[in-house]
Write a structure and sequence with these properties.
By secondary structure, the chain is α/β, with parallel strands linked by helices. It has 13 helices and 15 strands. Helix 6 packs parallel to helix 7 and helix 7 packs parallel to helix 8.
Length: 351
């Protein structure tokens, strides 16, 4: 309540991207102070073995994670782990650093509880992320690596970018997510074609199987796919043997928004996240789960703000959930509230 009454209104007075950098720097500074990590963990964690999840061959201390995009450069995974999250997905990481799209490129829709972004895979590149991840301390917070191609890489050569990232990050992350569904990279959506994905995922899996201990590879799914395309996703998971999917990414849709059409039009292109995405995210997760016969794990993300939202996502068929926009709107205790609700409603059990 304190965050939403006092802190959020102050933060929302400033440019969203600048606020993100400020909050990121503040979290890193705070957790360098002796004792602060332990204090934060005590305030935000729900320590109960019934929350543990065995998913994609990994043991998660709880089912609530942070979605890709919040920790683009692998600077915050330690701090986020101190706020009660069971896993953090870093990235999207590309082989070479790139500035992303021109600013401004991140916009709030407070009336809708949403964000529109057209960041464009801005990040410092794999070498910078690798340096930080190598310093990762022993922790029970699972780290995922969200992989993307460089903007200037032609789609015909995209697989090479994903293979390079996989090799470079293999020893420092616990699982991988192939991101071809971000709407903010020119022509990236073409890689969602089944043939293109078969090539990328097939080559990744062949490389993965050469490792002594292969790691889970997942595909991030767009909410803008139709049911026929979702059927192809189900087929791809079976054909390539990947570990599962992350559903969903941001949407290019703009339907049923409370924010004025004039303001939305002025913002322009970008991926919409937050509450307006919730119903479609639930629909996609439920469809993939039921149509596949629950054949593979699903990490559900999109519009999760409250414990009830998370419970609905788990009930729809998700094995784990991720937050991003909800974290920004609801504050640092969101993981604790969701985990307490999971214990109360499911006794800690999975779906």
């Amino acid at each position: 309540m304190f965050y939403k009454t006092f802190i959020r209104p102050l933060l929302f007075c400033f440019d969203p991207e600048k606020v993100h950098h400020f909050v990121s720097s503040s979290l890193q500074f705070i957790f360098r102070i002796p004792g602060m990590a332990a204090l934060a963990q005590k305030a935000t964690e729900v320590n109960d073995v019934r929350l543990e999840r065995e998913v994609i061959g990994l043991k998660f201390k709880n089912p609530v994670g942070v979605a890709a995009g919040f920790d683009k450069d692998a600077c915050l995974f330690g701090a986020l782990g101190n706020l009660g999250f069971g896993f953090v997905e870093v990235g999207t990481i590309t082989p070479e650093g790139q500035p992303g799209n021109p600013k401004p490129r991140l916009f709030r829709l407070p009336a809708d509880g949403g964000l529109i972004n057209r960041m464009g895979f801005n990040n410092e590149g794999v070498d910078a992320a690798l340096r930080r991840l190598k310093k990762r301390r022993k922790t029970n917070v699972i780290i995922g690596g969200n992989l993307g191609k460089n903007t200037l890489t032609p789609n015909a050569q995209a697989a090479e970018d994903y293979l390079l990232l996989f090799e470079r990050l293999f020893d420092v992350v616990d699982y991988f997510v192939v991101n071809v569904s971000c709407p903010n990279i020119s022509d990236l959506h073409e890689l969602q074609d089944k043939t293109a994905l078969q090539d990328i995922l097939g080559r990744l899996q062949r490389l993965n199987r050469q490792k002594s201990s292969p790691k889970p590879v997942l595909l991030k799914v767009s909410p803008d796919l139709n049911f026929s395309q979702l059927d192809e996703v189900i087929e791809l998971v079976a054909e390539t043997g990947i570990a599962g999917v992350v559903a969903v990414n941001t949407t290019i849709g703009r339907t049923q928004l409370k924010t004025s059409g004039k303001k939305v039009g002025h913002i322009g292109n970008g991926g919409l996240s937050g509450k307006p995405l919730k119903n479609r995210a639930l629909q996609v997760v439920r469809y993939l789960s039921e149509k596949s016969g629950r054949a593979f794990p699903i990490i559900g993300t999109g519009g999760i703000f409250t414990p009830e939202d998370a419970l609905q996502m788990l009930d729809a068929g998700a094995d784990l959930v991720q937050v991003y926009t909800g974290f920004i709107y609801e504050g640092p205790f969101i993981a604790k509230r969701i985990n307490k609700a999971v214990l109360k409603n499911f006794g800690g059990r999975g779906r």
